[in-house]
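> example.struct
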């Protein structure tokens, strides 16, 4: 299960996607999720392995304490995790579906949990050439004590969507109206 903000953006993406294809960039209106814009990133794709950050919301810039525009998104992750992320991003382009990265965001001497969404978007040539992203802290960002995020350590990559329907599904159980599993 993802954070409700991540789920909300995934649902938004799915409502605009076409069968077997990602939504076109023109189908995405930032006004539809204005309250999430500080957490949103737009990541481009030059070629496999080169994913420049095109736009970053205010929270994203504050967490890194720098302007991330034109920086390769892979460079934000530890060197040992970059190939796994690159492979997942390329798979998300071939099988148009969002991926959610679960990572530890490391400062100088502290870390916080983070979900990072990457949802492919189609450009003018109909091929996926961008990713709509979302930074969703899973713990209080105040734990960083003013330190910038220096790198991410990948814990898990969740792939979803029709291309992975054979994957086991989580079943929810409720007790007195509260979800317990």
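> example.seq
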């Amino acid at each position: 299960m993802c954070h409700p903000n991540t789920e909300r953006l995934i649902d938004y993406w799915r409502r605009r996607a076409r069968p077997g294809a990602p939504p076109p960039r023109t189908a995405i209106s930032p006004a539809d999720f204005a309250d999430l814009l500080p957490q949103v990133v737009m990541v481009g794709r030059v070629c496999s392995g080169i994913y420049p950050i095109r736009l970053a919301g205010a929270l994203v810039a504050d967490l890194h304490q720098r302007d991330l525009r034109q920086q390769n998104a892979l460079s934000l992750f530890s060197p040992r995790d970059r190939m796994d992320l690159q492979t997942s991003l390329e798979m998300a382009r071939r099988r148009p579906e969002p991926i959610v990265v679960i990572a530890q965001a490391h400062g100088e001497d502290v870390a916080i949990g983070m979900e990072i969404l990457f949802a492919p978007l189609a450009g003018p040539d109909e091929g996926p050439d961008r990713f709509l992203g979302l930074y969703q802290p899973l713990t209080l960002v105040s734990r960083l004590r003013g330190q910038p995020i220096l790198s991410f350590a990948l814990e898990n990559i969740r792939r979803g969507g029709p291309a992975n329907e054979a994957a086991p599904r989580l079943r929810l159980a409720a007790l007195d109206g509260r979800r317990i599993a």
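> remarks
Residues 163-170 have pLDDT under 50 and may be disordered.
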